[in-house]
Amino acid sequence: MEFPTEDLRSKSWEEFAAPNDIHLDFVFTVCDNAGGEACPYWPGQPMTGHWGIPDPAAVEGTEVEKKFAFRQAFKAMETRIQLFLSLPLQSIDRMRLQESLDDIGKSPPEAPKR
User: Fold this and answer.
1) How many angstroms separate the CA atoms of 68 and 53, rounded?
2) pLDDT tens by residue, 43-90
């Protein structure tokens, strides 16, 4: 499956951390390197989770291997987003929600079909 990506780019957290910016309810970091870093202050104190995945852009190899790495990253995010969307957000307390966000970040993605 192909998705348009021409207008997509990696964004620095600084684009979203300024006061009076967009209100964020949740912030998820996905960079594998970010897992051990201290998270910046987010205005409004949104819930946070680290859902690290290997950087597919760092993969070296054939075009097929590179494309497969991007598919793996996409599948990992798709699986985690589906798990997140299945949470009972209206009826779960903040502590249990944080535990759930952390658990989702530890969940292994399904292996994509080649």
Assistant:
1) 14
2) 778 898 889 888 898 999 999 999 999 999 989 999 999 999 999 999
Instruction: Give the global pTM.
Output: 0.77
How far, in Å, CA of 36 to CA of 28, rounded?
A: 14
Q: Which of 11, 33, 29, 43 has the alpha carbon at shortest distance from 80?
A: 29
- Nearest CA to 99 out of 111, 77, 83 is that of 83
In a domain, 112, yes or no: no
Planar angle of CA 17, 23, 82, nearest 5 degrees: 100
| Domain membership of residue 57 as a residue range | 13-106
Q: Calculate the CA 28 to chain-centre distance.
A: 5
**From residue 41, how far is each of 23, 24, 46 by CA, in Å?**
13, 12, 10
Would residue 43 count as lying in a domain? yes
Instruction: Please indicate, yes or no, if residue 84 is contained in any of the structural domains.
Output: yes
Number of domains in the chain: 1
